[in-house]
Protein: PKS/mFAS DH domain-containing protein
Organism: Emiliania huxleyi
Amino acid sequence: ALPPARSHSTRCVSSSRLVLRRRVSGLSQTPRSSTELRRPVPFLGVSQAGWDGDERLWELTFNAAELDFLRGHRVGKVKLLPGTCYIEMARALVHSLHGDTGFVLSDVTFQSILFLDEVELTGPPVVRLTLDLATARLAISSSVEAGSWDTHAAMDLIPRQADATANLEVATVKQRCPESVDGATFYANIGNQYEGEFRQLKKAWGGGATGETLGLVEYARHEKEHVHLRSCAWLDVCTHPGIWWSGRRAQGSFASSVRAYHILKAGVAANRVIWSHLCVDVRREGTLRYYGESMSELVRIEGAQGGFFEVGWLESRRARRHMYDVQWASHTDRVAPAHVLHVGSRYVAGMLHVTAAPATHDRLDAVAFAAGGASTAAGGAHSTAQLVALDAAMSVVQLNVDSPALWFLSSASSASSASDASSQPASLGTHSGASIAGLVRCARQESARVPLFFTVAGNVTAHLACVPSLLDPELEMRCDAVHVPRLRKALLRGGQQASSGMDGMHLITGGTGGLGSLTASWLAERGAASLILVSRSGEVSESSARQLVAGEAKALVCRGDVSDAVAIPRLFAFSSPTLEGCTLRGVWHAAGVLADATLPRQTSTTLRRVFGSKAIGSHSLHRACAAQPLQCCALFSSV
């Protein structure tokens, strides 16, 4: 987090702030039309209040083009909103209230970071600008997914005409800066992985005894349509030269504090070439000046100080926020044996055999279903066996809605040792056990009055003679011990930190759908050399095609159905000549068929359709890629 804000509860109101209040109050005497008030303004949004009262509110939501542009700003590898956006928001506000005039943002405090690395999941943030007319204090905050409002920055807003300034003497400054670096070398060696228009420093000079730096920012053309985005970018890029001579260039860097921004010109239409000149005083505070192509001063920043994160620190904080493991803990509480109806299924010679033990009591406490046989099948028969067992388990759920309790038992292929208690149950490693576990979890979400339990047992009959307490939704019995699942915070084990690169070739099933397209873009960003996009249609949308063409990764779109056991081997045989020399490093199984319905409405047909692409597809991928040197294999859930 950035340094906390200072308290402003006892601030005196200066005459310049009173001028702002009078000018704003003057506008309230002639209210604007509702149409004008509701018209969105770039980087300002829409007014949320009338012209009365002591506060003015605006709210804005970045559109897709703005988000794509702003996500080119990085601290380390993390996408976040640049602080220069706050300058452009203030510029839009001043223009809305006073027209084209210069202004000062003083007593600036940064309070928190506005992250942009999860907008695909959460949607764009809603940004709010709150102007206190009594104190001229501007606060900028945001809310994600209709949650609480987080304040990111606060500052005093003072409209005023520009001060007289001197032009930049480039040759004179260069004489005091004996060292230089070109833009390509600069961005290849710093910690912040900027993209797009935030990566436009052409050359920088520095290395003198005083800490002085000079920077040249150059774009291919003037930006006339999205001037607010271009200004946001060059305001940030002009701060980059100081990173090179900071002694900490490999770390993630950011602006930790600024005393004041002086915006000397209301707008910058000539925005192709910008110069920056940084002077550092004895207190190590910098005064940074920005100059246009004519060498006249545009912006002055006073009291600028930079901050740094250790390499990987911010990335690790973002990547591990919600990571948890399931730990299987010992459980000792037991209750008396219950009156249980035993129902079992076994897949033999292509047929499902269902058995039920005769009831020996008038009262029935639970129905226990044990699926077997699927784990011993091989190849295509294996997939058929697990599907049939899952279908039988679903029938048990549908036919026993009135039973007091319903237990599902899946036998592990071999007994596990007590030392494995912290890992997942042995039978969850088998397809039949994992499939039925998923079915039980879905059923638990739909039925509040019928408790459903999934039990792993080496010897089903022996373990049912002494049933554990029925407080946990899942449990495992092995080696005469009972284990129950507990969540624990995931620990990053030594030597298992994820690689920052995703080089080589990657296979994405469902590659032309929504998840597949996002995954392809993400992999291309991280250095994937080749992408094989597999889908039943074999067709790519226009937006996805544009992203693939713009990237450096070679993409091959193939038509295929992963629920067909022979589709994957055939796909590899087809694509090998085209992608010769590429090594398969990742498999991303995002294929899926949507057939949503509650369990009572599910049928064998809908189950087979969904199960085919997810479970049978993953089994086919596993068999086809078993000998490949994979870096990663990701299976996308359907829930």
Residues 1-36, 413-422, 493-500 have pLDDT under 50 and may be disordered. The domain at 505-635 is CATH 3.40.50.720 (Rossmann fold). The radius of gyration is 32 Å.
